[in-house]
Write a structure and sequence with these properties.
By secondary structure, this protein is mainly α. It has one domain (3-71). The protein is built from 3 helices and no strands.
Length: 72
């Protein structure tokens, strides 16, 4: 896997709590000392928030359509 994709995977695992204690500490130390990693983590968090919001909006549209069909 390309190093950039490995970083994304490690940060994803960090955010999801899928790392063991040693790996989590390694990422935490990298985040303390590496501003690039801090920015990547912030960007990944924003991406997750955007995906959650898009999913909620889609669900709301689907529920509105169902409501309209039922009670229209």
């Amino acid at each position: 896997m390309r190093p950039e994709l490995e970083e994304v995977q490690v940060l994803e695992d960090y955010l999801q709590g899928n790392l063991n204690e040693e790996q989590r500490m390694d990422v935490a130390v990298r985040l303390l000392w590496n501003q690039d990693w801090q920015q990547k983590l912030a960007a990944q968090k924003l991406a997750y928030q955007a995906l959650r919001m898009a999913g909620r909006q889609q669900l709301r549209r689907e529920l509105d359509a169902i409501y309209t069909r039922l009670f229209g």
